[in-house]
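Exercise 7b. Backbone tokens:
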């Protein structure tokens, strides 16, 4: 599955990791309101009407080749927590064992992988797709409530299945344990 395929499905380029502190750490440059991806504070850009810090997302890490302007998907994930896709980036940053020795193994593994690859000159781009919201209305103790339903997990699994069917394997950084068919 290449970058062009991801873009055809409506994923948009939203961020990339880059080295800081003489290569000892990294952070993310993110999509801004003007459409640029920059490492400066500013109003967040939107993808299909949704800001990076709201709602549920499916995203891909793509190893980008500037010579061909194409890339290979190396990770497929979902953002379901508070803070949307930007919150998911923050949780990867908390994978730095220097600051948080107990954070989840996925965050630590991704943090270490980026610190290994970025000094080698490998370029990583992150593409995001906001999971569409649907609403459900239910009655609880005589009170009717309407709430959003977002099923990022099924979007993630669907994309992983498509990837596996096209390539005969999962993306490099995904494992069978985080993919339940």
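Sequence design result:
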């Amino acid at each position: 599955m290449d970058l062009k395929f991801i873009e055809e499905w409506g994923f948009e380029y939203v961020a990339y990791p880059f080295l800081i502190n003489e290569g000892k750490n990294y952070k993310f440059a993110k999509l801004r309101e003007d459409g640029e991806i920059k490492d400066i504070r500013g109003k967040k850009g939107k993808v299909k009407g949704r800001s990076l810090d709201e709602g549920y997302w499916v995203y891909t890490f793509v190893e980008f080749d500037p010579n061909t302007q194409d890339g290979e998907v190396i990770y497929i994930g979902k953002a379901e927590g508070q803070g949307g896709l930007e919150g998911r980036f923050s949780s990867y940053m908390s994978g730095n064992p220097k600051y948080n020795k107990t954070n989840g193994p996925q965050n630590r593994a991704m943090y270490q992988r980026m610190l290994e690859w970025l000094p080698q000159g490998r370029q990583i781009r992150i593409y995001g797709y906001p999971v569409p919201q649907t609403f459900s209305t239910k009655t609880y103790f005589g009170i009717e409530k309407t709430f959003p339903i977002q099923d990022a997990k099924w979007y993630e699994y669907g994309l992983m299945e498509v990837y596996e069917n096209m390539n005969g394997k999962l993306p490099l950084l995904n494992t069978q344990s985080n993919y339940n068919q």
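Instructor comment: Helices lie at 3-8, 84-93, 105-117, 152-167. The chain has one domain: 3-178.
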